[in-house]
């Protein structure tokens, strides 16, 4: 299985490079522009997004550099991830339809940002990126989950295991760890790797990273509860009570965050498709 992590091409190399550059606080718009320009499909997508009426503004965005400035690093990364299997392929084992994994990633990232605002803080740069990438490991682990489906489902749905714990019990590894190994292979920042690795077990990560990991952990749970991009694993994960305490989450905050996320996800889908779509 670890050999699969080394060999699999989960994202196009151009997308990996854009994620790496856009996440670098010392990188400028010119570096991101040059990376995007190597991919004609992504260039067209970024320009289309930047000229969407949903973003406001009357001046037409004609260059990739202007598009990068207008969209910001978060939307640029989301566009890059929209160019590979994360956006297009169904995910066997988890019973995710084509595009559902990307939608779940976008919803989790937006929710993490909204949670931070609701808690009176601003999400660090790495939170949005880590939230977009937190379930990337499902693309690799899916065939193994499919092969051992009965054993995993029995533990998760008939036993007392959370879905990630069932993965570890049967396969010896879970999708969060597989995702972290992929990101290490791509040499993404250690902070992103750690959030992805521990996003189901935030109290187990380094204390210095607990806040950002809490945001992604809580965001993913809220999205699953709302049915945004979830598969067969759905709500079969356990929320860490300590996360709720550390973030100070209240029902009123959760409701407001989910409403805001739903409206933003409509925006994301509209920017992606070029036409208005409803949440499913």
What does this molecule look like?
The protein has 280 residues and is mostly helical. The protein has helices spanning 2-7, 13-23, 29-37, 40-50, 64-81, 85-88, 100-118, 125-133, 138-147, 149-158, 163-171, 175-185, 190-198, 210-225, 241-247, 251-273. Helix 4 (40-50) crosses helix 5 (64-81) and helix 13 (190-198) packs across helix 14. The protein is globular, with a radius of gyration of 18 Å. The two termini are 33 Å apart.
Question: Short description, anyone?
Answer:
With 280 residues, the protein is an all-alpha fold.
Describe the secondary structure blueprint for this structure:
Elements lengths: L1 H6 L5 H11 L5 H9 L2 H11 L13 H18 L3 H4 L11 H19 L6 H9 L4 H10 L1 H10 L4 H9 L3 H11 L4 H9 L11 H16 L15 H7 L3 H23 L7
Helix pairs in contact: 2-3, 2-5, 3-5, 4-5, 5-8, 7-8, 7-14, 7-16, 8-13, 8-14, 10-11, 12-13, 13-14, 14-15
């Amino acid at each position: 299985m670890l050999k699969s992590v080394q060999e699999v091409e989960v994202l196009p190399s151009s997308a990996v490079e854009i994620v790496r550059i856009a996440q670098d606080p010392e990188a400028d718009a010119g570096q991101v522009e040059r990376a995007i320009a190597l991919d004609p499909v992504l260039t067209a997508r970024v320009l289309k997004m930047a000229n969407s009426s949903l973003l406001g503004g009357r001046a037409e965005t004609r260059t990739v550099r202007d598009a990068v400035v207008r969209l910001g690093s978060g939307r640029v990364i989301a566009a890059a991830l929209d160019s590979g299997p994360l956006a297009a392929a169904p995910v066997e084992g988890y019973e995710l339809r084509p595009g559902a994994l990307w939608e779940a990633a976008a919803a989790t990232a937006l929710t993490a940002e909204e949670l931070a605002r609701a808690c009176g803080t601003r999400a660090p740069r790495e939170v949005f990126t880590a939230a977009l990438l937190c379930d990337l490991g499902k693309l690799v682990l899916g065939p193994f989950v499919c092969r051992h489906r009965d054993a995993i489902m029995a533990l998760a749905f008939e036993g007392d295991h959370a879905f990630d714990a069932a993965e570890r019990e049967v396969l010896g590894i879970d999708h969060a760890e597989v995702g972290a190994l992929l990101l290490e292979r791509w040499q993404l920042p250690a902070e992103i790797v750690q959030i992805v690795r521990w996003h189901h077990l935030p109290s187990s990560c380094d204390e210095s990273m607990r806040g950002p990991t809490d945001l992604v952990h809580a965001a993913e749970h809220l999205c699953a509860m709302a049915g945004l991009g979830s598969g067969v694993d759905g709500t079969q994960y356990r929320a860490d009570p300590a996360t709720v305490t550390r973030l100070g989450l209240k029902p009123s905050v959760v409701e407001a965050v989910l409403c805001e996320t739903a409206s933003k996800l409509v925006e994301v889908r509209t920017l992606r498709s070029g036409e208005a779509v409803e949440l499913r």
